Amino acid sequence: YGQSQDMADMWDSTTTKNPNKHIQWFKDAKFGLFIHWGLYSKLGGTWNGKHYYGSGEWIMNQAKIPVRKYEQVAKTFNPTHFNADQWARLAKEAGVKYMVITAKHHEGFSMFDSKVTDYDIVDATPYKKDPMKSLAAAARKRGIQFGFYYSQFQDWYEPNGGRNTWDYTESKKDYQRYYREKAIPQIKELLSNYGPLGIMWFDTPGGMTKDQTRAFVNGLRKLQPQCLFSSRVGQGMGDYKDFGDSEVPPVPMEGAWESIYTHNDTWGYIERDFNFKSPKEIIQLLATVASRGGNLMLNIGPDGEGNIPYYSAKFLKETGDWLSVNGKSIYGTTAGFIPKQPWGVTTEKPGKLYLQIFTRPNNDLLLVPGCLPQVNKVYALDGGQPLGFTKKGTDLLVDLSKLKRTVSASTVIVVECKGAL
Ligand code: FHN
């Protein structure tokens, strides 16, 4: 697919010529958890009695809240319900293999103990603890890779940070000073004080030349060579490509890449959120992304007390229930060579084709078009029920009639072949 070559061309020499050898865990992971948690989580999309629709984490920008007013929110930010083990347990039950949480979003507030600024959760709030330490440990204890989101350019608190145009004049900003005095020292803190990180996830790059970004990247490598970072570091760099928010490539993509979606209506918590993706939507999205060869990182937005929204917890657990039975058809797979079908999508492992059936044909005859090598056996992944099949030219017809009619977001059929697919 042409874009994979574009990706190769697009990537800087720091990746295409010497790709990070630690990338394989990421390619096999397939499912990650994104967490947006900051002062905005306490506001829940409302400021001065007005509700701002759209991304909860953008409320300071949407309401053009002056820095001196917005920073007051920290004085009552006290997430006493935060429980690192509970969050990590949910991540495990959901079946995610990595977790990325906002260390500092565009609001400029540090959700970790930083010596670079007092505008952080330990110095500026009654909570006075660093939740990131305990969350990193709880995730790792459960075999989940831990990583940070860091808004490296947009910082609406700092006079020289990017994009606060309501308190400061953009043209008068010294971005290099912001990087030198805040962003780079904080990223070093994150890469030095929280153990081995799986991912540093940068967002909306700016204010750096290509050479500066390359030096920035190489600095990260020296601190934690195994830490991956996505293409949102900017300038075509990164160990893997991130698509735009809520984007999935239309056809399989080579290389390591990730689609990012949010489970709720926004990324940060909003009080009146009525649009949580169902387990079926999550599972079919995950299978579709995996069928194109990539990962899905799904976001949740805990509230200002440290609670994960009820429907996010419930639907993630139900997604994990499906993965506990069908995970073999997702984790460690590659893109299915058969394009999307009326009945669903496919994923692959050597010698195995996994049919992700979203819509069961009414006549129970499943047409699998494509030049399959010799098919040895066909069976349901859940329970192993062997299924009848016949070849029709180069196509395969699978008889599903023996399959019990259970309701599932995706019924997985395994086609075992002799030789490579
Ligand atoms: O502006 C941010 C937004 O708040 C959110 O963090 C998303 C997540 O991918 N990233 C930026 C918009 O793409």
From TrEMBL:
GO terms for cellular component: lysosome. One of its GO terms (biological process) is glycoside catabolic process. Residues 10-328 form the Glycoside hydrolase family 29 N-terminal domain. The keyword Zinc does not apply. Keywords: Glycosidase, Hydrolase, Signal. It is an enzyme of class 3 (hydrolase). GO terms for molecular function: alpha-L-fucosidase activity. It comes from the Bacteria. Coiled coil: none annotated. Its EC number is 3.2.1.51. Belongs to the glycosyl hydrolase 29 family. Alpha-L-fucosidase is responsible for hydrolyzing the alpha-1,6-linked fucose joined to the reducing-end N-acetylglucosamine of the carbohydrate moieties of glycoproteins. This is alpha-L-fucosidase. It comes from Arachidicoccus ginsenosidivorans. The lineage of its organism: Bacteria, Pseudomonadati, Bacteroidota, Chitinophagia, Chitinophagales.
